[in-house]
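Support request from a user on the community tier.

User writes: "When I paste my C-alpha cells into the form, the page sometimes reloads and wipes my input. The last time it worked, I copied everything first. Here is what I submitted, just in case something in the input itself triggers the reload:"
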C-alpha cells in the first residue's frame, strides 16, 4: 500500500513540478561556468594588460565610483592582486533593490563596463531563482522554486525506494542501462537507471538550493551544522543604528598587505549599507591554489586603530562552519573542485530528460489504464440504442476482451456500439435490436460459461420468437482439443437461425491459434464499418518481468512440487491489474522472442494472479506438471525449474471480469472456495479485501496433506487473527484423520452457506475443474437450487476461475 501511494505521489509531483525543475536544471547549468564564460567573451575587460600607473587605494576607488554613480554605494570591492587585471565592483542602490556590477580600472576607478554576456546571465539567474516572475525574491516565483526543490528531494528518495531491486547487492540491477530496449521500456530505463547514477547530485542540488528559498531552512541548517543561527557569511560586519560616518579602510588595508604580502591573489572588501556602522573591517582573501571561490581566509581589523582583531583561516574552521560558508559552492559543485563543477553541469543538463521521460511514462500509463478500462469495464460510448449491440459470453475474459475491442474498432469507424453480457439479451432487447454481434466462448466440452447459464436455461431452452428483423454475426471461441469444439457457440447460432435472424456472415469458429479465423473476424468487422487499428486485437502487450523470488510451498511432499513465484516489472506502471485477473506467460528466453502486442496463445500459458498491485510484485502459484515420460510441462517447467531467479520472462496481465468482485460493494462478504494452486486467485482476493479494510470472509480450501500442503499457512492464520477471515475451513484428503474433499466440506456447511448467500455473500471458486469445481457446483446446486445458482452467476455473485 505504501509503495503504491509513494508511486502515485511521485508521478503527480512529476507532472506538476517537472517543467519547473527542467527549467531550473537548464538555467543552473548555463551558470555553472559563468565567470569563465564572461572572461572568455570579454577578455580585455578582465585583463587589460600591464599597467604602468600606480593603483588607487580602496578608499580612493570607493569614493570615485560612488561619485560617478549617485544614489548607489559600493557594497563590495573585489581586489585582484595581479596588476594585469582589473577590479570587480558591485554597487547597490541606497534606496530600493537596484544593483550594478562590473569591472573598473584599478588606477583611476573608471567604469569599464559589464561583460557582453551579463544580461544573459542576469536573465538566467532570475529564471533559476524565481522564474523571472514579478516580485523577485519576495514574490510567488521563489515559493514555486522552493517547492520544486522539495519535490526534487522527494523524487530522488522515492525513486530509489520504488526501484529497489530484490537483489540489492547486484550492481548491475542498479546501474546497467540496456539500450536495446525500445518504447516505454527504454523511457523507464533512462528514467530510473540514469536517475540512480545522479540521484545523489540532485539531492545535493536540492538540499543546498533550499538555502536561498526559505529563511527557516537556512537557520535550521546553520544551527544543525554550527550550533548557531545566522546567515552564510558576513554577519556582525554591520549594525543598523542610522546614518553614520564610514571609517577609512586604507589603514587596515595597508596593515593587511604588509602582513600577507603576495600570499593571496584575490581579496574581497565587503561594506554594509550606509545605515549600518562598520563594526570591523574584514578582508576575505583567496590563495592561487584555492579549490573554490569561497575557500577564503578572513582578516578582521579594528576600524579605529587598524589593528588585527581576528585571523580566521579556512583550514582551521570546523566542517560545519565551512559548509555553511560554502553553500553556493556546494550548490554548483565547485566545493569539490573542477570535477565537481563538471558533474553538476552535466547532471543539471539531464534534468529535462527526467521531465520528458516522466511525461512519456505518464501518458503511456494513462493510455494503458484507458485501454484496461475499455478491456474490463465498458468504456465504449453508447446511448443504449447504438448502431450495433455486441453481446459476450465469457469465462476467463477473452470473449469479453474481443467484444470490447470490436466495439472500439466500430466506434473508430464512426458507429455506436453497446457492449452487454449475453444474459441481457432478453426478448424485449432482441425485439428492439437490428444488428447484433455475439462473441461466445464454450466452456469445457460444449458447456456455456457460468455467466451464460441463465441465458441457456431461460432463452435457448425455449422456442425462439420471430427475429426476422435482426441481422446478427457470431464469433465462437473454443478449444479444438474438446470433441464438441465451440459447442455452445454453435448452439447459440442455431437458435438465432431458427428465429429467422439474418446472418451478417457465416459463424466464425476460432481456436486460440487460428490465424484464418482471426483474419475472417477482422474482415467481418471491417465490412461492418470498423475503423483501423483495433479489430479484435489484444490491447495489452507482452513485456519483460524479472523473477525475483521462487519458493517451494510443499517441501517433502510426494506430490508434484508447488511453487510461489514473485515477479517485478520493468515499469512500475504495469502494476495495474485487479484481483481475479489472469497472467499469460511466454515460456522460453525472451531475448529469442519479440515482445509483440499479440503472441499466439499456443506459445503461452495462463495462471491466476496471486497478489495485488499494492504488494509491489506479481505473484503466481505454479505446480509442476510432467508428461508420461517424466518431462516437465512447457509452462510449469519454465517457471519452476528453467528460469533462473533474477532473469526475465515475457508476460502480460489480462483482465478477467468474470472473476472480479464488485468494488463498489465494500460490505460484501465473500465465500472463497478452492483447492491446490487455486489458492492463487483466492489469495489475491483476500489481499484486496485486506487492503480495502473489509473483514468477515469465509475460506474453504483443500489439499493432500496437512504436513506438506498448508499453503500460506502464516498468512491465513494472521487473517483469522485480525478478522479478515471469520472462518477458514481446510481439509486434507490424504490424511487419515480428515480424508475429506472441499465439496464435502461445503455440503456439510450447507445451512450456514445458504444463510450467508441469503445475506448477500458472493461465492468465488478457484481451482481444478475436474473433481473440486464440479463437486462444489453440484453441492451448491443442491443447497441453493440450480435456478438460484444461475441467478447468482448473472448477478456476479457466483464467479469461478477454474482450469
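"...and here is what came back when it finally went through:"
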Amino acid at each position: 500500500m505504501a509503495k503504491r501511494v509513494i508511486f502515485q505521489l511521485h508521478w503527480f509531483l512529476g507532472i506538476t513540478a517537472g517543467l519547473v525543475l527542467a527549467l531550473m536544471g537548464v538555467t543552473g547549468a548555463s551558470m555553472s561556468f559563468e565567470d569563465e564564460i564572461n572572461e572568455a567573451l570579454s577578455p580585455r575587460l578582465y585583463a587589460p594588460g600591464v599597467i604602468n600607473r600606480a593603483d588607487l587605494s580602496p578608499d580612493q576607488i570607493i569614493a570615485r565610483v560612488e561619485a560617478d554613480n549617485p544614489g548607489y554605494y559600493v557594497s563590495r570591492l573585489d581586489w585582484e592582486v595581479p596588476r594585469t587585471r582589473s577590479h570587480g565592483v558591485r554597487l547597490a542602490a541606497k534606496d530600493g533593490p537596484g544593483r550594478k556590477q562590473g569591472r573598473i580600472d584599478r588606477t583611476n576607478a573608471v567604469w569599464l563596463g559589464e561583460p557582453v554576456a551579463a544580461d544573459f546571465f542576469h536573465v538566467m539567474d532570475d529564471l533559476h531563482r524565481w522564474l523571472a516572475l514579478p516580485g523577485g525574491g519576495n514574490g510567488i516565483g521563489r515559493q514555486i522554486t522552493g517547492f520544486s526543490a522539495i519535490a526534487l528531494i522527494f523524487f530522488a528518495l522515492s525513486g530509489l525506494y520504488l526501484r529497489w531491486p530484490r537483489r540489492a547487492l547486484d550492481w548491475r540491477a542498479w546501474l546497467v542501462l540496456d539500450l536495446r530496449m525500445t518504447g516505454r521500456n527504454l523511457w523507464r530505463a533512462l528514467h530510473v537507471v540514469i536517475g540512480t547514477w545522479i540521484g545523489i547530485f540532485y539531492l545535493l542540488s536540492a538540499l543546498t538550493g533550499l538555502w536561498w528559498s526559505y529563511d527557516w531552512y537556512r537557520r535550521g541548517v546553520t544551527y544543525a551544522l554550527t550550533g548557531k543561527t545566522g546567515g552564510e557569511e558576513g554577519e556582525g560586519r554591520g549594525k543598523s543604528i542610522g546614518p553614520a560616518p564610514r571609517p577609512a579602510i586604507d589603514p587596515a588595508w595597508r596593515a593587511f598587505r604588509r602582513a600577507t604580502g603576495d600570499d593571496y591573489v584575490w581579496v574581497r572588501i565587503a561594506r554594509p549599507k550606509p545605515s549600518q556602522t562598520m563594526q570591523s573591517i574584514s578582508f576575505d582573501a583567496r590563495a592561487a591554489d584555492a579549490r573554490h571561490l569561497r575557500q577564503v581566509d578572513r582578516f578582521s581589523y579594528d576600524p579605529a586603530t587598524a589593528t588585527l582583531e581576528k585571523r580566521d583561516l579556512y583550514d582551521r574552521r570546523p566542517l560545519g562552519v565551512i559548509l555553511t560558508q560554502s553553500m553556493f559552492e556546494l550548490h554548483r559543485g565547485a566545493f569539490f573542485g573542477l570535477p565537481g563543477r563538471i558533474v553538476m553541469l552535466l547532471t543539471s543538463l539531464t534534468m529535462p530528460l527526467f521531465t520528458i521521460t516522466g511525461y512519456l511514462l505518464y501518458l503511456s500509463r494513462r493510455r494503458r489504464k484507458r485501454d484496461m478500462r475499455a478491456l474490463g469495464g465498458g468504456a465504449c460510448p453508447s446511448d443504449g440504442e447504438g448502431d450495433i449491440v455486441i453481446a459476450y459470453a465469457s469465462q476467463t475474459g477473452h470473449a469479453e476482451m474481443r467484444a470490447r475491442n470490436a466495439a472500439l474498432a466500430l466506434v473508430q469507424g464512426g458507429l455506436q456500439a453497446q457492449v452487454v453480457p449475453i444474459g441481457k439479451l432478453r426478448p424485449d432487447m432482441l425485439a428492439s435490436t437490428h444488428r447484433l454481434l455475439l462473441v461466445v466462448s464454450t466452456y469445457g466440452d460444449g458447456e456455456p460459461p457460468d455467466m451464460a447459464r441463465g441465458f441457456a436455461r431461460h432463452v435457448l431452452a425455449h422456442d425462439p420468437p420471430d427475429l426476422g428483423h435482426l441481422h446478427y454475426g457470431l464469433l465462437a471461441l473454443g478449444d479444438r482439443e474438446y470433441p464438441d469444439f465451440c459447442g455452445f457457440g454453435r448452439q447459440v447460432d442455431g437458435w438465432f437461425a431458427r428465429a429467422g435472424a439474418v446472418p451478417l456472415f457465416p459463424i466464425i469458429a476460432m481456436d486460440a491459434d487460428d490465424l484464418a479465423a482471426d483474419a475472417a473476424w477482422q474482415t467481418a468487422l471491417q465490412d461492418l464499418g470498423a475503423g483501423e487499428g483495433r479489430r479484435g486485437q489484444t490491447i495489452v502487450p507482452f513485456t519483460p518481468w524479472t523473477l525475483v523470488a521462487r519458493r517451494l510451498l510443499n517441501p517433502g511432499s510426494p506430490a508434484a512440487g508447488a511453487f510461489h513465484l514473485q515477479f517485478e516489472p520493468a515499469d512500475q506502471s504495469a502494476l495495474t491489474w485487479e484481483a481475479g485477473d489472469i497472467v499469460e506467460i511466454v515460456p522460453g528466453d525472451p531475448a529469442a522472442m519479440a515482445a509483440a502486442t499479440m503472441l499466439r496463445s499456443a506459445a503461452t500459458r495462463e495462471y491466476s494472479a496471486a497478489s495485488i498491485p499494492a504488494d509491489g510484485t506479481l505473484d503466481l502459484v505454479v505446480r509442476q506438471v510432467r508428461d508420461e515420460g517424466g518431462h516437465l510441462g512447457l509452462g510449469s517447467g519454465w517457471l519452476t525449474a528453467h528460469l533462473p531467479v533474477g532473469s526475465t520472462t515475457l508476460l502480460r496481465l489480462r483482465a478477467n471480469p468474470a472473476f472480479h468482485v464488485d468494488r463498489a460493494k465494500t460490505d460484501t462478504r465473500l465465500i472463497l472456495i478452492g483447492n491446490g494452486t487455486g489458492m492463487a486467485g483466492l489469495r489475491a482476493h483476500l489481499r484486496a479485501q485486506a487492503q480495502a479494510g473489509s473483514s468477515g470472509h469465509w475460506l474453504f480450501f483443500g489439499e493432500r496433506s496437512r504436513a506438506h500442503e498448508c499453503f500460506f499457512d502464516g498468512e491465513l492464520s494472521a487473517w483469522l487473527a485480525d478478522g479478515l477471515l471469520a472462518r477458514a475451513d481446510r481439509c486434507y484428503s490424504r490424511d487419515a484423520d480428515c480424508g475429506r474433499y472441499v465439496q464435502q466440506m461445503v455440503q456439510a456447511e450447507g445451512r450456514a452457506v445458504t444463510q450467508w448467500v441469503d445475506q448477500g455473500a458472493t461465492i468465488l471458486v478457484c481451482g481444478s475443474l475436474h473433481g473440486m469445481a464440479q463437486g462444489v457446483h453440484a453441492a451448491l446446486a443442491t443447497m441453493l437450487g440450480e435456478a438460484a445458482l444461475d441467478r447468482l452467476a448473472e448477478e456476479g455473485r457466483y464467479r469461478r476461475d477454474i482450469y
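Agent notes: The reload is a front-end session timeout and is unrelated to the input. Residues 378 and 419 are 7 Å apart (CA to CA). The first strand starts at residue 72 and ends at 80. Escalated to web team.
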